[in-house]
Amino acid sequence: MLGIKNITIVFSFIFLMTPFTSQAVNIAQGWGRVNMQGAIIDTACAIAVESRDQTIDLGIVPVADIIRDGHGRSKPFTIELVNCDLERDGNKFPDWKNFQVTFDGDAEGALFGVQGDASGVALQINESGGHAAIPGSPLPLRNITPGAMQLNYTMKLVANNHALKAGSYFSSIRFKLDYF
């Protein structure tokens, strides 16, 4: 008789726990999590839609060009700013006067690193005024012109003093504008 009571108690315990476990799983199935982030910005200009996400194809660069010249051909690109307005909303802050552009990406010293099969090369960006962009460092201050502005740059493949190897390459470089 003692053996039968023990079996009954064990079965009762398992049977009582099953509905609670099932119910806990059903409750968890109806819950989730959403993470959000964002920014509220105040800018003097908007970036034209076609300038926000650009793909710049540097084409095929012969290894001989890199060996002989230390770089490939320069490829121009433009960032267009539109709806530039010097006046700020309200009188709490002074009007806009200047801005700075910062390019950022995989840094390889003062150059932008590349990924892929190629090696011994990196990317260099120069603004039309001759200043070279250094990853994460802002370019010199420029004046804001009301209306629309075109910011002109060139990009080229340059030797980076590592072993040169032919192959495909790619890089992602971001830019941001700070207004003052």
From TrEMBL:
Keywords: Fimbrium, Signal. It is found in: Fimbrium. InterPro entries: Adhesion_dom_fimbrial, Adhesion_dom_fimbrial_sf, Adhesion_dom_sf, Bact_Fimbrial_Adh_Pro. The lineage of its organism: Bacteria, Pseudomonadati, Pseudomonadota, Gammaproteobacteria, Enterobacterales. The keyword Signal applies. The keyword Signal applies. It comes from Serratia silvae. Coiled coil: none annotated. Belongs to the fimbrial protein family. Residues 35-168 form the Fimbrial-type adhesion domain. This is Type 1 fimbrial protein.
